[in-house]
Backbone:
């Protein structure tokens, strides 16, 4: 079916059917990744600019791989290595990109609203949000959804416990939207100072992590940003790990076949225990692989419209 969206700002506008289109397309892209020659001409002649104003390893690398596997021409643009470091404004950067005639921009910025700004400035160019401030990280949510869907199959009626700093997590916001739309009961847990008020409209809040993971099929540990401890938003690192860290002991309260997920990078011994991160229940490396397949699927859908290959 033709893809009806022009830009990807967040997954809150996706219907259940939209999610299934992405998931099924990602399955096809994963098959491409398994070939000896991991390349198809789907986006030959298309130019994609990766515009990253924040440091990134997994997201940027997986987007670049996805673009190259689809035969797109790639421009990597980072703040440290561009005129932005010399004081160039986002408006002037946008004008420069427009003059280059790119077909799509993948953007990450600490400023909320950057994707919408570029949509307005770069008419006719597809904008894909790779993370804006603490608001949204739609491609992470989609790769998380894909990883869980590939593991369990139907997700309806499943329970997901997200543990950690919900307040500052763009991953949590997008994951709550995505998994809820797919019929998953989402429960969040963490220090009350790190739980935003609006979350109560989207997910259940349970301050006790043991109760939060009780009966959970998916236990999702969020990365703790250590600067939050300096701001006094939660107790010491040790206290945080003892109460909210995802450890083997905590998993005893979850379903026996529960999986553990984490968006990376991990703070071992803080939000997650090494034995859990490296254990048989961990889907962390699956998430990394899924990231390439899902981003290939999204680039194909947005730039080729879902037309047959």
Residues:
């Amino acid at each position: 079916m033709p893809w009806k969206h022009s830009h990807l700002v967040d997954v809150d506008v996706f219907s259940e059917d939209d999610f299934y289109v992405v998931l099924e397309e990602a399955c096809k892209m994963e098959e491409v990744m398994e070939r000896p020659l991991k390349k198809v001409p789907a986006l030959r002649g298309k130019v994609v600019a990766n515009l990253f104003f924040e440091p990134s390893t997994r997201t940027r690398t997986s987007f670049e791989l996805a673009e190259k596997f689809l035969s797109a021409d790639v421009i990597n643009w980072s703040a440290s290595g561009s005129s932005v470091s010399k004081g160039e404004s986002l408006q002037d950067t946008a004008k420069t990109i427009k003059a280059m005639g790119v077909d799509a921009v993948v953007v990450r910025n600490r400023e909320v609203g950057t994707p919408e700004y570029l949509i307005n400035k770069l008419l006719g160019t597809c904008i894909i949000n790779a993370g804006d401030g603490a608001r949204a990280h739609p491609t992470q949510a989609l790769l998380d959804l894909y990883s869980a869907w590939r593991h369990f199959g139907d997700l309806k009626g499943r329970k997901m416990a997200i543990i950690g700093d919900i307040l500052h997590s763009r991953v949590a916001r997008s994951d709550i939207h995505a998994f809820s739309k797919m019929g998953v009961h989402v429960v969040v847990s963490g220090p009350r100072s790190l739980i935003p008020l609006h979350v109560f409209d989207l997910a259940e809040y349970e301050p006790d992590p043991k109760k939060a993971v009780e009966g959970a099929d998916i236990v999702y540990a969020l990365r703790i940003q250590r600067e939050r401890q300096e701001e006094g938003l939660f107790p010491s690192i040790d206290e945080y790990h003892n109460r909210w860290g995802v450890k083997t002991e905590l998993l005893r309260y979850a379903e026996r076949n529960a999986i553990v997920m984490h968006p990376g990078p991990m703070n071992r011994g803080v939000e997650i225990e090494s034995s859990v991160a490296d254990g048989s229940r961990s889907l962390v490396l699956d998430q990394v692989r899924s990231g390439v397949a899902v981003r290939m699927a999204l680039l194909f859908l947005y730039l080729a419209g879902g037309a047959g290959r």
Q: What stands out?
A: The CA atoms of residues 137 and 171 lie 5 Å apart. Residues 82-86 have pLDDT under 50 and may be disordered. DSSP finds twelve helices and nine strands in the chain.
